[in-house]
Specification:
It is built from four helices and 14 strands. It is of the alpha+beta class. The protein has a seven-stranded mixed sheet. The protein has a five-stranded antiparallel sheet with strand order 1-2-3-5-4, with helices on one face.
Length: 235
């Protein structure tokens, strides 16, 4: 599964953004991306979850991919009149009822600091906080999984304290290890793959987050509650 915002295709906006209204973009020949108005918050995401349940029942829909305050709808065939699809999506958005997914609670043990915390010092410089303050603020928060994407099993988490928001790197790390606990902008997560990564690593989680042989390959799911537990702090 991939997050809609990561799809490397040209977007054609066929429903412009209006204050307080959703925006729909036409991606490819049969895909429509609806973006929620307002802030990146749980209220908007609950509407996305509700819309994904509704749109997923439409006969002409092949796949629905809920993202972070957006939803990608892929049709089985290229529509003759895209405006009809746009109108239907916007009507569904306007009439949706907010839902909250009753997910499970997942505790992720973390080794904060140490060799994998390659960006902790930079985050301290950026935030003006000590390394201990950054670690404490990170593990004391409670997070919700908004969506899965980017890499198999990767969860986009909401709930990061504003004090430790950190922009993504302009030049990604060439090789970040799978399991690194990272911060990218207003989000945090756990790296699923070893390789280039533009997020900022502050620790490491030795927990299998994705098992392709399992009945449920991904440990995380939208709606889950996440707690990071400091198994070790090495500063």
């Amino acid at each position: 599964m991939i997050a809609p915002h990561s799809i490397p295709l040209q977007r054609q906006v066929i429903q412009p953004a209006v204050k307080g209204q959703a925006r729909v973009s036409f991606i490819g020949s049969r895909s429509f991306l609806l973006e929620a108005p307002g802030e990146f918050d749980l209220t908007a995401q609950r509407w996305i979850w509700a819309l994904s349940q509704t749109v997923g029942t439409w006969a002409e829909v092949s796949e629905v991919i809920p993202g972070m305050t957006n939803i990608l709808t892929i049709l089985k065939e290229t529509p003759e009149n895209p405006d009809i699809v746009v109108g239907r999506l916007l009507d569904a958005w306007d009439t949706a009822h907010s839902v909250d997914l009753a997910g499970k609670t997942v505790e992720i043990p973390v080794h904060y600091g140490g060799e994998h915390a390659t960006d902790l010092a930079a985050l301290c410089d950026f935030s003006g906080l000590s390394d201990r303050e950054v670690v404490r603020i990170h593990h004391e928060a409670t997070y919700r999984v908004f969506a899965l994407g980017s890499a198999p099993g990767f969860g986009y988490l909401h709930g990061l304290d504003r004090r430790i928001h950190m922009p993504r790197k302009k030049v990604p790390s060439i090789r970040m290890e799978r399991g690194c606990v990272t911060i990218g902008g207003m989000q945090t997560g756990v790296a699923m793959l070893t390789g280039p990564n533009g997020w900022n690593s502050i620790g490491y989680a030795d927990l299998q987050m994705f098992n392709p042989a399992a009945n449920q390959p991904a440990l995380l799911a939208p709606g889950d509650t996440i707690r990071f537990i400091p198994a070790r702090i090495e500063l």
